């Protein structure tokens, strides 16, 4: 898109997009550290991850403040308006991603013992990898204003859901085998759920990128199925 | 790319079905051309303007908004070098038909200008002038009623009811503009055209006029030219974007300002025209 007649306006929008990118990078790193801490039972890393999450909250507030100022000063219209709206929502999703990672890190400290099953750890790692790929890809799509990529990314969330469902079943089996596993498995279950939710946030971001570029909402034709096996047509 | 077409809004929703659009149409312009000598100022413009709706004309200055607006009550007839072609109908009657009396037409299609232009007469005379020359009243008491009700509709009554004999030119700018609106209303028009009615007013006076426009919509068809996109977004339900004499895009105001279809509209509303 060509530039605004008022060049400071372009500058302001570019800075907001830059802050989103910063949030995205930070969120990715927090997620990956939280899961590393979980797999290796690294309590120090877990604690530092919890501390770093604060920066995401700060960035969210900064982006909100900048957006409000641009709205007040420039009265954005058309694609600019949608970009500002999308930036606000995306920043919120990224802040939530940080919260999910923080939850995982807190459980590392609560579990405080080696993981019983190598296989479980691999499952959680794999799911995290997929969620992080989704997050990276969707932030790229935001930067490039690529609606087609956003549609593709949204379609890929099903894979994360599927892994989550199989992890869920596996954890149930362990718990049934030996009640002494229940505490650790319950913690792991919540960790897996948190990572699965990161995938959902990436999906939200994809929908916002699509809206930002096209001005239309994607049809909500994704079937939603969670570990309960009950399809949810209403949830957002 | 095929998934992308799964977007919710379809072309049909964008232009609602023809039948209802026709029912609501107050003014319809078909292939209108306007020339000032050799200058082709309006190029092949067709548009349906809906009744009881505020339609805003926006676009860069010189794009022909005022020219097109003036076609709607034949104000361009007063400009010698101006030539209008095509068909413009109000309630399906061609307003350029030789049988139409332009003076009567202008009573039916009132106009409010950029600079408030009250006559150098009393407030009362400003409002009563139209009904008098159009022979709309027989008795003084009827005239009093029209003056009062017009000033009420224009939201000015409370401010001036005790000084109807003082000169209209003594009012503040915003009051003068509302006086001009009262003057337009006094001859019971069906359509009110406004050419940048707030550009000489401060924000409070502007807000009052905008409030008034919103109230008037119930009874009149309103077309407003404005250079303020925020104003168009605030007061209108339909927006038409003009560029270099062409009507580029017309649609529901909320769509034009959040998701315009044409690149030129997009560039203009987002402040990207150099
Ligand atoms: N009375 C006139 N005589 C000659 N040219 C005119 C006259 N009025 C307008 N024009 C020309 O017609 C074009 C459209 O003008 P106008 O309708 O005033 O645009 P807008 O209201 O969008 O600023 C411009 O190029 C302008 O110079
Ligand atoms: Mg003009």
TrEMBL record, chain A:
Q: Which SUPFAM superfamilies match?
A: PhoU-like
One GO cellular component term noted in the UniProt record for this chain? cytoplasm
Role, per record: Plays a role in the regulation of phosphate uptake.
Q: Which organism is it from?
A: Roseibium limicola
Pfam annotation, one family? PhoU
Record carries keyword DNA-binding? no
Put simply, this protein is called: Phosphate-specific transport system accessory protein PhoU
Q: Which family does it belong to?
A: Belongs to the PhoU family.
Q: Which UniProt keywords apply?
A: Cytoplasm, Phosphate transport, Transport
Q: What is the lineage of its organism?
A: Bacteria, Pseudomonadati, Pseudomonadota, Alphaproteobacteria, Hyphomicrobiales
Domain PhoU per the UniProt entry, residue ranges: 20-108, 124-209
Which subcellular locations apply to this protein?
Cytoplasm
Q: Does the keyword Membrane apply?
A: no
Summary of subunit composition and partner proteins: Homodimer.
Annotated GO biological process: intracellular phosphate ion homeostasis; negative regulation of phosphate metabolic process; phosphate ion transport
From TrEMBL, chain B:
Domain of life here?
A: Bacteria
Where would you find this protein in the cell?
Cell inner membrane
Q: Kindly provide the name given to this protein in its UniProt entry.
A: Phosphate ABC transporter ATP-binding protein
Species: Roseibium limicola
Q: Does the keyword Cell membrane apply?
A: yes
* Span of domain ABC transporter: 27-269
Please give the family membership noted in the entry: Belongs to the ABC transporter superfamily.
The UniProt GO MF terms for this protein read: ATP binding; ATP hydrolysis activity; phosphate transmembrane transporter activity
Function as written in the Swiss-Prot or TrEMBL entry? Part of the ABC transporter complex PstSACB involved in phosphate import. Responsible for energy coupling to the transport system.
Which NCBIfam families does its entry note?
3a0107s01c2 (TIGR00972)
In Pfam terms, one family for this protein is: ABC_tran
Determine if Translocase is one of this entry's keywords: yes
Query: Where is the signal peptide, in residue numbers?
Result: none
Membrane topology term? Peripheral membrane protein
Gene Ontology CC: plasma membrane
One biological process term in Gene Ontology:
phosphate ion transmembrane transport
- What sections of the protein cross the membrane? none
Which InterPro entries would you find in this protein's record?
AAA+_ATPase (IPR003593), ABC_transporter-like_ATP-bd (IPR003439), ABC_transporter-like_CS (IPR017871), P-loop_NTPase (IPR027417), PstB-like (IPR005670)
User: Keywords, A to Z?
Assistant: ATP-binding, Cell membrane, Membrane, Nucleotide-binding, Phosphate transport, Translocase, Transport
């Amino acid at each position: 898109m060509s530039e605004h007649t008022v060049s400071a306006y372009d500058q302001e929008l570019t800075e907001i997009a830059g802050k989103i990118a910063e949030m995205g990078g930070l969120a990715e790193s927090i997620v990956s550290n939280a899961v590393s801490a979980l797999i290796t039972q690294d309590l120090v890393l877990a604690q530092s991850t919890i501390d770093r999450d604060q920066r995401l909250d700060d960035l969210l507030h900064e982006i909100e403040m900048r957006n409000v100022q641009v709205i007040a000063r420039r009265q954005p219209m058309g694609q600019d308006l949608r970009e500002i709206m999308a930036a606000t929502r995306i920043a919120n999703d990224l802040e939530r991603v940080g919260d999910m990672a923080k939850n995982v890190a807190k459980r590392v400290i609560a579990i405080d013992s080696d993981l019983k099953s190598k296989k479980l750890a691999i499952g959680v790692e794999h799911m995290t990898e997929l969620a992080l790929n989704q997050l990276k890809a969707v932030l790229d799509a935001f930067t490039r204003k690529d609606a087609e990529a956003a549609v593709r990314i949204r379609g890929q969330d099903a894979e994360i859901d599927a892994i989550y469902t199989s992890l869920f079943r596996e954890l149930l089996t362990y718990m049934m085998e030996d009640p002494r596993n229940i505490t650790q498995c319950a913690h792991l279950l919540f960790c897996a759920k948190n990572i699965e939710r990161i995938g959902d946030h990436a999906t939200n971001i994809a929908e916002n990128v699509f809206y930002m570029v096209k001005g239309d909402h994607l049809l909500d034709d994704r079937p939603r199925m969670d570990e309960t096996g009950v399809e949810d047509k209403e949830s957002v | 790319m095929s998934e992308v077409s799964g977007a919710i809004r379809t072309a049909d929703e964008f232009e609602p079905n023809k039948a209802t659009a026709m029912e609501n149409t107050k003014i319809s312009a078909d292939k209108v051309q306007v020339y000032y000598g050799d200058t082709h100022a309006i190029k092949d413009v067709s548009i349906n303007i809906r009744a009881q709706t505020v339609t805003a004309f926006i676009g860069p200055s010189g794009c022909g908004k005022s020219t097109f607006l003036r076609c709607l009550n034949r104000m361009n007839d007063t400009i010698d070098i101006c030539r209008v072609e095509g068909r413009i109908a109000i309630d399906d009657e061609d307003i350029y038909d030789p049988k139409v009396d332009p003076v009567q037409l202008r009573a039916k299609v009132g106009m409010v200008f950029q600079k408030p232009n009250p006559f150098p007469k009393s407030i009362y005379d400003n409002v009563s002038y139209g009904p008098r020359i159009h022979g709309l009243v027989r008795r003084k008491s009827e005239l009093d009623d029209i003056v009062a009700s017009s000033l009420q509709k224009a939201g000015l009554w409370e401010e001036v009811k005790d000084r109807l004999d003082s000169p209209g030119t003594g009012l503040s700018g915003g009051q003068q503009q509302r006086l001009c609106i009262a003057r337009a209303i006094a001859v019971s028009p069906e359509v009110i055209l406004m050419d940048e009615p707030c550009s000489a007013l401060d924000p409070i006076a502007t807000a009052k006029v905008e409030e008034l426009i919103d109230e008037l919509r119930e009874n009149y068809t309103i077309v407003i030219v404005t250079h303020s996109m925020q104003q168009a977004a605030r007061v209108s339900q339909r927006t038409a974007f003009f560029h270099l004499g062409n009507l580029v895009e017309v649609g529901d105001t909320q769509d034009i300002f959040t998701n315009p279809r044409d690149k030129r509209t997009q560039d203009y509303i987002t402040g990207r025209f150099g």
